[in-house]
Amino acid sequence: MVALLLWFAAPLDARQIVxxxxxxxxxxxxxxxxxxxxxxxxVANPCFHFVVAYKFPITDVMVDWAELQELTQAHPVxxxxxxxxxxxxxxxxxxxxxxxxxxxxxSIQWCGMFPMMGPLLHNAPHRLTVQYRYLxxxxxxxxxxxxxxxxxxxxxxxxxxxxxxxxxxxxxxxKWNPDRPEVCDTxxxxxxxxxxxxxxxxxxxIYSTDGAKVYEVTEQKACPQTHTFSWDGQxxxxxxxxxxxxxxDVEVNPNAGSSGDTDRLRSGRINIGEHKLExxxxxxxxxxxxxRSIRNAASAWSEVYAPTLERMAGPVxxxxxxxxxxxxxxxxxxxxxxxxxxxxxxxxxxxxxLLWARDSFSDQDKAHREKTCLTNQRVYLIGWFxxxxxxxxxxxxxxxxxxxxxxxxxxxxxxxxxxxxKEDVKRDPATGKLQVVPGYSPKVVLPGGQTGSLxxxxxxxxxxxxxxxxxxxxxxxxxxxxxxxxGHGGFGTLIGxxxxxxxxxxxxxxLPTPGIRVTVTPFDLIHLDAVRVFYLSACQTCTDSxxxxxxxxxxxxxxxxxxxxxxxxQGLKMPxxxxxxxxxxxxxxxxxxxxxxxxxREGTTVGQxxxxxxxxxxxxxPKRGQTWRDYYGVAGxxxxxxxVTIK
Length: 647
What we know:
Layout: E1 6-7, E2 17-25, E3 36-38, E4 42-43, E5 47-54, E6 58-70, E7 80-82, E8 88-89, E9 107-113, E10 125-140, E11 144-160, E12 164-166, E13 174-176, E14 187-193, E15 198-208, E16 213-223, E17 225-230, E18 244-252, E19 263-264, E20 271-281, E21 284-292, E22 299-305, E23 311-317, E24 322-323, E25 335-340, E26 352-358, E27 383-389, E28 391-392, E29 408-409, H1 413-421, E30 423-427, E31 434-438, E32 440-441, E33 443-445, E34 451-453, E35 455-456, H2 461-476, E36 481-486, E37 489-490, E38 494-497, E39 507-510, E40 531-537, H3 550-556, E41 561-565, H4 578-589, H5 606-613, E42 632-635
Parallel strand pairs: 4-11, 21-24, 27-32, 27-35, 27-36, 36-40, 40-41
Antiparallel strand pairs: 1-10, 2-3, 2-5, 5-9, 6-7, 6-10, 8-9, 10-11, 12-14, 13-18, 14-17, 15-16, 15-18, 18-19, 20-21, 21-25, 22-23, 22-26, 28-29, 30-31, 33-34, 37-38, 38-39, 41-42
Helix pairs in contact: 1-4, 4-5
């Protein structure tokens, strides 16, 4: 037998494989013409595919990766890389450009890249690179012998000009007074820009300077083009708006969603938080304000308007320190700026003090802009939440007592309650509609800018409990607070804490109790008038439904409503009141329902929350005549603690 060996003498060359990267887009959505494939130039809302045509002896092409790189000096850039591909035969749908003139004589494959990325790309030059290999038959022995060649790379460069809205009147204040038409100025201009010609929905909103929306309209507008909008001083309901100052916002393609080709004039990454005014004399005042953002602002400034709606002073620029939206501010988080202005008008109308801020997120904006927020937005005070929950490994919390049936682990409970109360559902007094507002947060910003937490699950002892609680009340006052404890209690007078020393669980907080050494008493706490609800999820923290014992003692320190149990929770659901605690705080905070509509409920009072919660303490149906008073005790500094809310 003679073996037949056949090898190709000539190496493969570029005439046997042709590759191309296509940037596919539609330059005019109004003309019903098909999309175009280009390899250079300016595009908008693009998609991408890699096409390869090859001839024998090449039998297959493999794509290693594709890399998309923004070419900008505006901010540091990390290229985006894709490594998984679905390679298909032929040309993609709508592809208008074959890589070869005689496609019938070639094998053609393609794969898509970076799906849904087009609308999110920044308006800047980009480079797209694809690395690939191919498989070819290099001989027969007697079966085909294959060899992989590569890697090879192909690259295209193009510029993106996606849809953006801008305005030369961005910081213009609209003036409205129907009784003085000579001072009215409610007209502004905005520009829509894109490489793609189209008609787009544009939502224009008018806001009072405290952030209340008074007017909204959505219209179809041509892009690219500059437009003029004149507000007639009417609210959305058709009623005349109050005389005063107003600002505006413009959203283009507002319903496209986060992955769509959309843009907004105002920043969604920074806002004016808590603010107040201190007038020293008729020639000087100080604005104190909190900026809400995860980055410091690029700039912040104030302006002063007279009762005649004319600007008297400003812009005067001030500090730019900001804190995250869900963090209660500490004293050092307040920014201050002083403005000299002559308040010489004698008028029954008000002077108007406006605060502005510009974000520092140009690296995340598609047009590399630093955007301004709306002025003086409505202030929803964010309260603080201090949660304590510990692991009691011995089962009991006082040495010498008979051991309990099992250990008690309450470490998860403070975090679960904190998640419930982080937002409140309340009714807007202006519109009567339910709305979700910031609630209570365990986060605090420490001196130096680091973020800390008021949730404590590691052993800190009763002394640590006193210290942490006093620090929160003192440092975050006059903010409202919620205090939650989950663990052991007893005698109507005590709660227990694991000692930092691992072998001891004798750290006790409470009232003097015969035969028991109490480490810290309620009298060691500073005044608790900032605490709305102090909740003790532990056995026997009081002796009756009026809270006699430890509950009443904490109420005497100023807490508006203190809730505890006057009976043992052994045999009920564990950890103590676990399900009931969640129901209680869900009721206090309100329920957002499905998509904030179906099933949404406003937050309740302490008494209403107890009516719902106590039934979750027991496994079966409640006995006839039972109420929450058979389990809970309530006291407080409020005239009626049962009417206390956390709103």
